[in-house]
Amino acid sequence: MNVNQSAPPVPPFGQPQPIYPGYHQSSYGGQPGSTAPPTPYGAYNGPVPGYQQTPPQGMSRAPPSSGAPPPSTAQAPCGQATYGQFGQGDVQNGPSSTVQMQRLPGSQPFGSPLAPVVSQPAVLQPYGPPPTSAQVTTQLAGMQISGAVAPAPPTSGLGYGPPTSLASASGSLPNSGLYGSYPQGQAPPIGQAQGYLGVQTPQRSAPSQASSFTPPASGGPRMPSVTGPLLPGQGFGGPPVSQPNHVSSPSPQALPPGTQMTGPPGPPPPMHSPQQPGYQLQQNGSFGPARGPQPNYGSPYPGAPTFGSQPGPPQPLPPKRLDPDAIPSPIQVIEDDRNNRGTEPFVTGVRGQVPPLVTTNFLVKDQGNASPRYIRCTSYNIPCTSDMAKQAQVPLAAVIKPLARLPPEEASPYVVDHGESGPLRCNRCKAYMCPFMQFIEGGRRFQCCFCSCINDVPPQYFQHLDHTGKRVDAYDRPELSLGSYEFLATVDYCKNNKFPSPPAFIFMIDVSYNAIRTGLVRLLCEELKSLLDFLPREGGAEESAIRVGFVTYNKVLHFYNVKSSLAQPQMMVVSDVADMFVPLLDGFLVNVSESRAVITSLLDQIPDMFADTRETETVFAPVIQAGMEALKAAECAGKLFLFHTSLPMAEAPGKLKNRDDRKLINTDKEKTLFQPQTGAYQTLAKECVAQGCCVDLFLFPNQYVDVATLSVVPQLTGGSVYKYACFQVENDQERFLSDLRRDVQKVIGFDAVMRVRTSTGIRAVDFFGAFYMSNTTDVELAGLDGDKTVTVEFKHDDRLNEESGALLQCALLYTSCAGQRRLRIHNLALNCCTQLADLYRNCETDTLINYMAKLAYRGVLNSPLKAVRDTLITQCAQILACYRKNCASPSSAGQLILPECMKLLPVYLNCVLKSDVLQPGAEVTTDDRAYVRQLVTSMDVAETNVFFYPRLLPLTKSPIESTTEPPAVRASEERLSNGDVYLLENGLNLFLWVGASVQQGVVQSLFSVSSFSQITSGLSVLPVLDNPLSKKVRDLIDSLRAQRSRYMKLIVVKQEDKLEMLFKHFLVEDKSLSGGASYVDFLCHMHKEIRQLLS
Ligand SMILES: [Zn+2]
Fold it and tell me: Which residues surround ligand 1, an ion (CB under 5 A)?
């Protein structure tokens, strides 16, 4: 990494740096992040080259020297700085809440356990019994996947999924039955495929092929299946290391591989290659298996599979097939990036650099642009004109994770305190001071990099410029030299012009029959007793500033007074759920350490109080309403933790009915399954957002609970939804408790507003994520944690300039968990281009997929699924066709040419298309689909990457002593060896697949049983055995879990067992039972679509 920047003066940064909240806490519950010691902050050196060589840890922090509050004569922050939504807050947070607090209708004295609780006055009473109730300089080296038309086998059927190569590559999985259930006409007879392969294999090892290929530095030819032994016929080495760019057509007119450097006639080598050494390696031209003459070369793909849920008719035309080993492999791309880019830090000093992939471990050095952990873009070089953008159809979007957790080695954003004057901003567009602002007139004024407005520099902020026009203090100030930093907000940025109170957490527990019966309530109460000691803290605070409160409910609500002065907690019942109010103010929200005894007593008693309940009905909206009113009364922001079991059918606002109807699937009305059944929750969510009330929902359903409706409030308030279907303590407690611990402890900002500003020429036009918007620019978030992302799409509104590039500034105003009002700023500069090739060379497919999945998942609310799928396919085809037409060298139409950095677009897109939301299998419930839909909405790029293309790790191939994660294999059944054991994970699910011929010693070591047949299918915990293999596998499982934001429950699956169907669902390169195409088939289909566009 060579960043040519001159060494600046190296004064340390100003104020003492608060430790990033995510890493200072004592650990609890085994959270990986929280166990890290406080991050030592190195002195900030600015973008000096030496910076890269010095490990951050070794740097000592110098005393504060800058950033001191300027005189208060500074210009006051503009009133608008506070964002529009606070006007609303003025109205809603007034004193009127006190009035409400005095109303006690419908409350009831607590007493007779079995008496129905209805409209009696609420009375404070001593506690008693309860009531019932995922490039090459694209030398245009695109990839060519030629029709790879096979010599027509005697009979029809699409050839694909080379059974033979499977067997030969990884040793033996029988193919029988694998494709048995596929729709007729799509599944080739196995024997044929094998026969075909038999012919092909020798061709693949043709010398011309091998010699024409120059192995990239990253490692020489690799076997497609890294785990398999080399077998005869495999010697060819499969596709070269860095992905076959060309799976060249065997057609006679095709140039021999290697000469097919489809170098684009136009574009010279990319300007950015010096910064992207890794990519250069991949720019080899064409290669790929050489094949014999293909009689059918060049013909369209008559046998293209269908892409709907309906199988196509049998294909009469000669089948053609692609060798799966010759088409772009996600595993290869990931491995190459790791090898090429995982060794050096990613330094953000240069505009428009494409960061390493999300699957690569790398460190980031902030030298003026936000870390890719905070912002990732679909492209780092955007077209100058909207015409170009329209032509390419590449969406311009940024996936922003404003409060992203950082690895311990990276410093969290510095906090800048400009005192009473507040942060310096542009007078016109309100953009915050940042490294791209241009100081002029000797430093007395600055020109805004976003809107070009000339602003005066306030006297206290004045500084001289050096001979290059840079302020001499630039490297003393985070806001002048870093991509990410924070400002302390002044009172002008606070609701009602008042600094906020510390936030509160309210635990709201369903105590209806189902919750009690499953043991949930007892488990939860027991856990809370200790978990409350680990609420989020800030800086070096000894204890959390967050106050807590407790509510239990079934069809009525029970509030608890846990004031420290009480000997015992007191319960108050509110049965008038139609007009919810909070029956007590004092004693409801308390400090944990002060009220510890009373809280412990309460948590001890709750499970017993409701032990005999027969109440099965529950309310839901009133519970949220109550929590929100309590926060309002306490004049603070906060989070509600709801633990809920059933469809809220009790008579109350937000009452729901069971409207699940599987018959709607594949009809125009399918969209209704994703829409909330009442608008009540939207209204409620709006109120919550105004109060800064974030709602996290833990669901424990035994049947349909209408997740689509229940998740509306969490979704709009920046909350999270967790779902544990058919919860049983013995099976699910580990997962639930792990999620709960993480959720309670995680760093979160409250009452937040996010605004994304852009330089002239583009603007943010669309947003995706868990938030609420009352206007077109401000993203309102009642809460925002380190896991949540907001995806923003940009469109042109003017012409961009190659020289000045394009700038983004994301400003997040939020209240920290200690009650401090802050602004977090992330800046990112992108390049702009007049050549389409530059666009295609700087795209990031993983981010594109993240955006496209979110767009599609939102689309299902309004459009038939088929239309949504078709739109995705069309857009993808247009993107690739535009590349082919404008960037790739002329070549035969029979070749599929993909831009290097988009070569995985088809495979990943196919995964999105056949996901449960867009093409559900028979076993997927409506609730599961709604759940996943809402999860994906807030996922970051790493999460969508593994979610759509799961990781499949062979466990016994690598040496037992190896401590590194085994290299993954492609998610296809043909990659499985029946003599091995694999882990598969997608961020939500975790499977351990055991091959039927696995060695007895392995079985014994992992399961402590003597044979394969004795392994319990469906097992969720591996026995703790004292042998290297057992320890290694369990450690790997722990490590995978630690990488994900949700606990993945393990499911042991035996080959050929019933449960295997569940597992196969995640082998995404294969055809799916729900009609989803195999990767090979989809690639052929995509090629056909592209050819149609080009013809
Ligand atoms: Zn401006």
Answer: 426, 428-429, 431, 448, 450-451, 453
